[in-house]
Design brief:
By secondary structure, the protein is mainly alpha-helical. The mean pLDDT is about 90.
C-alpha cells in the first residue's frame, strides 16, 4: 500500500468511527455538538449519510487490498494479529450489512437480534481499533 492510500484509509476510518459514534446521542449529551461547527454530529440523518458513504469507501478499499494481496500472494501466511484484524473486519462488515438490510422499508427483525447486531458491530469496531493501535505500537506487520 502506498503512503497516500494508507492516509486515505486512516482518514476514512476516522470519519467512519466518528459517524458511527454519532448514531449514539453522545455528542449531544456531552455538549460536543454545541461547539461551533460540530452541530452536525448530533444530526442522525447527517451522520447516517456519512456513515454509509464512508462504509462504501471502506468496503471498496478492503476489496482492493484483498484483491491486490491475492494477486501478488505476498508471503506464506498472516501474522496472528493480522488474523484477528481480518476476523474483526469480517464481523464488522457482516453485522453492518445486516443492519443496512434492517433499515430497508418493510424489513422487520426481533429487537434482541437488532441489539445483538448493534453490539457485535460496536464492540467489533472498538476491538479492531484497539488491535490496530496495539499492532501499530508494536510495529506488527500483516505477513509472516
Amino acid at each position: 500500500m502506498t503512503p497516500v492510500f494508507k492516509t486515505l484509509f486512516r482518514v476514512n476510518l476516522f470519519f467512519l468511527a466518528l459517524s458511527g459514534v454519532g448514531h449514539m446521542p453522545i455528542f449531544k449529551r456531552y455538549y460536543i455538538a454545541d461547539i461551533p461547527g460540530l452541530g452536525w454530529l448530533a444530526e442522525f440523518q447527517i451522520t447516517l449519510a456519512i456513515h454509509y458513504v464512508t462504509a462504501a469507501l471502506f468496503l471498496a478499499m478492503v476489496a482492493w487490498v484483498a484483491t491486490t494481496w491475492a494477486l501478488e500472494k505476498k508471503g506464506l501466511g498472516f501474522t496472528s494479529t493480522a488474523r484477528v484484524k481480518i476476523g474483526l473486519t469480517i464481523a464488522i462488515i457482516a453485522s453492518g450489512a445486516i443492519l443496512v438490510v434492517k433499515n430497508l422499508k418493510g424489513v422487520t427483525m426481533p429487537a434482541t437480534a437488532i441489539t445483538a447486531l448493534d453490539l457485535v458491530h460496536l464492540f467489533g469496531a472498538f476491538a479492531l481499533g484497539i488491535t490496530a493501535l496495539i499492532a501499530g505500537i508494536r510495529d506488527v506487520g500483516w505477513i509472516k
